[in-house]
Specification:
alpha+beta, 7 helices
């Protein structure tokens, strides 16, 4: 669709080339038109991906959160910041008693995992509500991450994360915010405490799923933590 519009826009620019004022105004219109067409194309692509997701009997994430995550993924992949066609989406608008983490293979459009995931102890009780990028805050950080390397820590196999948004999560590695397993991330903990356990700011997973998930998402895949309390200006905040 975009390639059909470009020739017309170029023709119009050449036609008005002798009049600098007209040319400037036309360039402004052209830029807006191209941006609008590109946005429509991206939105259409995202809706197509969403509608064709193979669920593997898992539930789908909300289209709004998936759309935001996928737009960021496309930008980061274009920049070379992430390299794998794997997207991990965490929706912190949902209760911690629900499975609010999805791992999606974008090559096959397949949901590989849906899991419980903990937020930081100072981020909220059952629901996540406040977030921080500061050391010792014991709060979760939102936004886009690139996954790093696996190491053996106090929780066993753990996965380092590099925050990609300045002032939002770029202290993740320094803070030790990693993906790890924890026994407080379980249905039994929920049954006994009426809510999931909480971490020191890490997206902690059920012990039985940790190794499987981090093996899939390690080494430069995209992880996105969503919450409706913030708006995301992609081009301005993403670290390239």
């Amino acid at each position: 669709m975009i390639y059909k519009i470009y020739p017309l826009l170029v023709f119009l620019l050449l036609s008005f080339g002798k009049d600098s004022k007209n040319t400037i105004e036309l360039k402004k219109v052209t830029t807006k038109s191209i941006a609008k067409v590109e946005k429509l194309a991206i939105d259409s692509k995202i809706e197509s991906v969403y509608s064709t997701l193979k669920t593997n009997n898992f539930s789908l994430p909300e289209l709004r959160t998936f759309s935001e995550a996928l737009k960021g993924f496309y930008l980061l992949k274009e920049k070379g910041v992430v390299q794998k066609d794997i997207l991990t989406l965490i929706d912190f608008s949902l209760s911690s008693n629900t499975k609010r983490l999805w791992v999606i293979d974008l090559t096959t459009n397949t949901i590989l995992f849906q899991s419980l995931v903990a937020h930081g102890r100072n981020t909220g009780e059952e629901f996540a509500s406040t977030f921080s990028n500061l050391n010792s805050s014991f709060k979760s950080s939102l936004g886009f991450y690139a996954t790093g390397e696996i190491y053996q820590g106090k929780h066993g196999a753990s996965l380092r994360l590099d925050g990609l948004e300045r002032g939002v999560n770029d202290n993740a590695r320094e803070r030790g915010v990693v993906v790890h397993g924890a026994d407080y991330v379980s249905e039994s903990f929920i049954n006994n405490n009426k809510r999931l356990g909480r971490s020191q700011g890490c997206p902690a997973l059920p012990v039985e799923l940790t190794n499987k998930i981090i093996e899939v998402i390690k080494n430069k895949s995209c992880l996105y933590i969503y919450h409706p309390s913030r708006s995301f200006a992609m081009e301005e905040k993403l670290i390239s």
